[in-house]
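Make up an example, fold above all:
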Amino acid sequence: MPEAQCSRAGCVATAIWRIDWRNPRIHTPDRRKTWVACDEHKDYLREFLAAREFPLEVSTLAVAS
């Protein structure tokens, strides 16, 4: 399985964080979207979503063995 790449535009770093979120205006409560982030961009992406008051959860990205 290939490594996940950070979702931040222009970043090619390996992602180690998972950010699950939804836009309550268009997504039902059971629908989630996922972004992945490197250490450098985790807070940026989390704050981007939080500023829009999107419900979100941040967790470590599971690595396939």
About this structure: The chain is about 15% helix and 25% strand. Strands lie at 17-21, 33-37, 56-60. The CA atoms of residues 21 and 33 lie 5 Å apart. The mean pLDDT is 93.
